[in-house]
Amino acid sequence: MTMMIPDTMPGKEECANSLRNVLDALYVLNGKWKLALILSLVQSSKRFNEIQNEMSGISPKVLAKELKDLELNEFIKRKVYPTTPATIVYEATEYSLTLKNVLRELTAWGGQHREKIRQSMRQKRYELR
After folding, report:
1. Runs of H (alpha helix) within 1-129
2. Keywords on this record (predicted)?
3. Is residue 6's pLDDT more than 70?
């Protein structure tokens, strides 16, 4: 991951716009589960129980809320099939694919961060000896 440092400092208005954009993105994607749910559904469509089994630690109530939020923001769609009982399948929308680069970068950064913490913990154990 390379870091781009601008040649000049951004102006006050550009900085305010950047901050507003980041806050908007965080408002829509806030929480522990939303990006993980989008990533899961980009890979394949799933039923509620399949999602819950894949996301260990999420309660049915929280999962239902997160799915509703993602549907309201058009990241996923809910398809209801007229069976008895009704079959409901959740799938990613084209709009969710606009997060592809964000998800790729977060995945890479998460792996780097996990490795950094592991190395730091190994180093601390070594220093304690």
Report:
1. 12-29, 34-43, 48-54, 60-72, 100-128
2. DNA-binding, Transcription, Transcription regulation
3. no
